[in-house]
Fold MBL fold metallo-hydrolase.
Amino acid sequence: MKALPDNIHVFERGWLSSNNVLMLGRHEVTLVDSGYMIHAPQTLDLVRHALKGRRLDRIVNTHMHSDHCGGNAILQAHYGSETLVPVSELEHVRHWNEDKLSFKATGQQCQRFSADGPLSPGDKLTMADLEWQVLGAPGHDVHSLMLFCAKEGILISADALWQNGFGVIFPELDGESGFIEERATLDLIATLDARVVIPGHGAVFTDVAAALKRARTRLDFLSGNPVRNAEYAVKVLLKFLLLERQRMKLDEVPAMFAALPIVAAASQRYLGKTPEETAEWTIKQLVRACSARIESGYLLNDG
Ligand SMILES: [Zn+2]
């Protein structure tokens, strides 16, 4: 049995852009998640190529992180696609509330787009001529959703479950609960009997039980000492900025990185460092892990 039906296409492009899932129904076409803003023209090209003259009727977002909705604006401009977002983010998107959306806190970019309607846990959607259930998936993000097709056993897990782990548990950085929710989300996935998972990042995979086991081990490690989640978070955030920019002037990085609200929060709450010290520490960690290197006064993306 093939992992995915022929009318479901997954665009996988490294870690800066989330996976995009194109659902080619007989009467309607939906894209689940749209990647990061700097890849938006490429996203449009990929969609156009796969659509062969058809229209993209609808965009569905699992959550509002910049790497999942950064292509929305260009696709809306081109196709006028109806756009559905998690119900608890609908007003934030409509008013483009930068204090509620994550872009300002993380220093990530997202071109403003519009939202036409909500998606709530318990909703049902038809995509690729199949019925999909909308499931709540808090943990990585309070508002995140997953999509499950029981008939085919396909789960679109967003950043709640990857082949190796899951996304940063962001709510914990602000002193809110996230580990407990992530555990419940993994428990929910275990009940689904999914045959194949389309994760938010990385390759489609079928060994779901092994992925759940790895994710639970990882969650035990992080929740055992939340400092580890904070350390992981700041490394991921700086790596994301490096992936986006490829090079940053080394002497400008500490002030820029320290100014990000999420870095300040993690520093104060967990790391026992000033935000500037956190920035210096994070640079060292990326260099040590060969994720970055320093050359002629620049911090360069590596690895
Ligand atoms: Zn995310």
The mean pLDDT is 96. The two ends are 35 Å apart (CA to CA). The chain has two domains: 8-224, 227-301. Residues 248 and 299 are 5 Å apart (CA to CA).
